Amino acid sequence: MTVGKRSDLEVHDFMTRVSGMGQHPKPWGKALTKAALEDERIVCLCADLAAPTETDYFRDHLPERFYQVGIAEANMIGMAAGMARTGDIAFVHSFCVFATKRCYDQISMQAAYPRQNVKIIGFIPGLSTYLGVTHQAIEDVAIMRALPNMVVLEPSGPEQFASAVQAALSVDGPVYLRMTSSFGAAHREIVEQPLEVGKGYLLRDGTDGVIIATGMMVAEALEAADRLVEKGVDVAVINMSSIKPLDEELILRMVRKTGTVVTAENHTIIGGLGSAVGDLLLETGNVCRFRRVGIADTFAEGGTTNFLFDKYGLRAANIVNAFVEARV
Q: What are the DSSP calls for 143-163, one per residue?
């Protein structure tokens, strides 16, 4: 990918903010900067994507601890691992697809294997970008879950960003944070919600089934639950913001209570949240009605998030249909 392409993205970021979306609140940038002001070990690295990853806020407030490494993700991981060995807590930033696949060997050998205190922060997960297959991280959770020592977290949105910083800091080792863009957050009040490693959050209780969702699909899951209520079906919703480790106790409790499970993720159904939940159910002998909503075994294409979510089945209607099919 060229420097020009990323420069275009930064221009798009700026133009989006000044053309009707209000002042971008940068909740991630602010939360990370606040944590760094309280802990001088925190350093911030960025692979030429300061504005889209909100690290321009950190850069402007703590320039002496900000490192712009350019389009060199593999080198960035090596730098971060070296910094971690000297006592720093290194937060590295790029798009999800580049922060994982482009430098997977370096993550494995320099961060995960030696259990270094490196926090990998990826933005624009799954089908949340119009830039097509090269920028769509649809298998990042699967490959990061497979790494020993790696914690995988996915906030539902800006409401969990501040807690996500603290969750990452609570781990003495590598963490992958899969971040949703906070554009549009200026139009609504951000009410902070908790995020802890190994913990899911029951956003809505129910007796007829449970939808376990993560990231951008949490909002779709809540809408699906509202639609199911109109059909006389009482469905619980879990925000599973900790994908590895899972909140096994919460999942099993709700499965035993309801007997029907639908998972929802902005990721391939192979190896992600659905696979993690399915493995747990099989290994614990919990037989239930089970469906996965996510990206089928396919690459996508360029387009708006709305278009892509509609085409590839990531909408509340798809969750409703999966739930109904599971109970037939």
A: HHHTSTT-EEE--SSGGGHHH
Terminal Cα-to-Cα distance of the chain (whole angstroms): 47
Are the C-beta atoms of residues 272 and 141 closer than 8 Å to each other?
A: yes
pTM for the whole structure:
0.91
Whether residue 196 is contained in a domain is answered as no
| Identity of the residue numbered 12 | H
Is residue 192 in a domain?
no
- The rounded distance, in Å, linking the Cα atoms of 190 and 162 is 11
pLDDT in tens, 237-276: 999 999 999 999 999 999 999 999 999 999 999 999 999 9
Residues 29 and 95 in one domain: yes
Place of tokens 């614990």: 284
Give me the DSSP letters along 252-295. HHHHHHHSEEEEEEEEESSSSHHHHHHHHHHHTT---EEEEEEE
Q: Strands 175-178, 151-153: parallel, antiparallel or unpaired by DSSP? A: parallel
CA distances from 30 to 97, 234, 237 (A): 23, 38, 29
Same domain for 209 and 138? no
Q: At what angle do helices 248-258 and 273-283 cross, to 10 degrees?
A: 70
CB-CB contact of 85 with 34 (8 Å)? no
The count of residues in the chain is 328
In a domain, 165, yes or no: yes
* Band of residue 188 on the pLDDT scale cut at 50, 70, 90: low
| Spatial separation of the C-alpha atoms in residues 158 and 166, rounded to whole Å | 14
| Tokens read off for 41 | 């070990």
Closest CA to 218 of 260, 264, 272, 262: 264
C-alpha closest to that of 264 among 289, 237, 231:
237
